[in-house]
Amino acid sequence: MKTLNDFNFENKKALIRVDFNVPLNENFEVTDATRIVSAKPTIIKILEDGGSCILMSHLGRPKGFQEEFSLKHIAKKVEDVLGVEVKTVADCIGDDVEAAAASLEPGQILLLENLRFYKEETAGDKDFAEKLSKLGDIYVNDAFGTAHRAHASTTIVAQFFEGKKCFGNLLAQEIESINKVMETGEKPVLAILGGAKVSSKITIIENILDKVDHLIIGGGMAFTFVKAQGGKIGNSICEDDKMPLALEILEQAKAKNVQVHIPVDTIAADDFSNDANTQILDINEIPDGWEGVDAGPKSRAQFHDVVMQSKTILWNGPLGVFEMESFANGTIELGNSIAEATKNGAFSLVGGGDSVAAVKQFGFEDKVSYVSTGGGAMLESLEGKTLPGIAAILE
């Protein structure tokens, strides 16, 4: 696996695929710079080597050239984060862009315009990729968030850099972290899967049953398992058509000596609202008109014990409707347990949109080992798929 450390970038132009698809407010100001901060170590390492950086990214889902999706809106924030002047150019391919790239001096940075202004980017067009390839000497992919897409800038462009392509620090870290959970993690290994639907996690569950010792199933998806085993779940979310699959998963887990932990009690609400009436109920005994919205106190205590005995922990998905303050406590307590286990030496990886949002919201970001930057890419990695953006560097 080639990383930045395999190259000396002195007097070289690095063409770097970053993921600067960041949220903007109505004044086109960046509201969360996490992805820019994550790319900083790669960029700074290349500049310190005496190289220059040509940054390419997408922003949003534009239909052709749309002013509101221009990367010039984020250039100032990129400059602030990196502490280095960032030059911009009004396109990502063409003579002007090639001239701007050619004139870059060591230590300088050029930010290209939004790649998705061209439909050829998402189509994985080879000619478009070749035009991008003319801009740099070495190709660096540091965009884990788009590594599961076979786009021109994430995958196809690598064909033009034989022997001159590598992973950036962020992408290398993502690969190593997932590998720690899936291959080399110290046992016992625990996977915590939450969120609303079993259907979105089926392939992950099937793929990780060979790798883990414990599996906690929480959030809305737990009710499909509870109902499948004959429990009464009231108005709780459930995928009835996935109940046979839930029983199959439990059988598979048993055959593979994986201990499955499902909540035993729940905070139930009489309405899907922060101000609803609530009561603590046995998870098998939820009456009609009530729905489970968070893990109950007994479940939290049980989950804490499982977390504390684990040496490698994957957390993907919340335990309740954490977006509502009244139903966030199960997720917060789980975060506290994982933070404590991490402090005691466990390796903890958090990934997937909702769990990452929860970790940030409740201040656990610096208390776990690694927070993944890629939602879809992370999930596809856990499903055992080879991501095209990663395969393109390894080829």
How would you describe this protein?
This protein has 395 residues and is an alpha/beta fold. Helix 1 (34-49) crosses helix 2 (72-82) and helix 8 crosses helix 9. It has a 6-stranded parallel beta sheet with strand order 3-4-2-1-5-6, sandwiched between helices. Strands 10-8-7-15-16-17 form a 6-stranded parallel beta sheet, with helices on both faces. The longest helix has 16 residues, at 34-49. Strand 7, helix 7 (202-208) and strand 8 form a beta-alpha-beta unit. It is elongated. The chain is built from 14 helices and 17 strands.
Give the SSE map.
Elements: E1 13-17, H1 34-49, E2 52-56, H2 72-82, E3 86-88, H3 95-102, E4 109-111, H4 119-123, H5 126-133, E5 138-141, E6 165-167, H6 169-184, E7 189-193, H7 202-208, E8 214-217, H8 222-228, E9 232-233, H9 243-255, E10 259-261, E11 265-269, E12 278-282, E13 285-286, E14 291-295, H10 297-308, E15 312-316, H11 329-343, E16 347-350, H12 353-361, E17 370-371, H13 375-382, H14 388-394
Parallel strand pairs: 1-2, 1-5, 2-4, 3-4, 5-6, 7-8, 7-15, 8-10, 9-13, 15-16, 16-17
Antiparallel strand pairs: 11-12, 11-14
Helix pairs in contact: 1-2, 8-9, 10-11
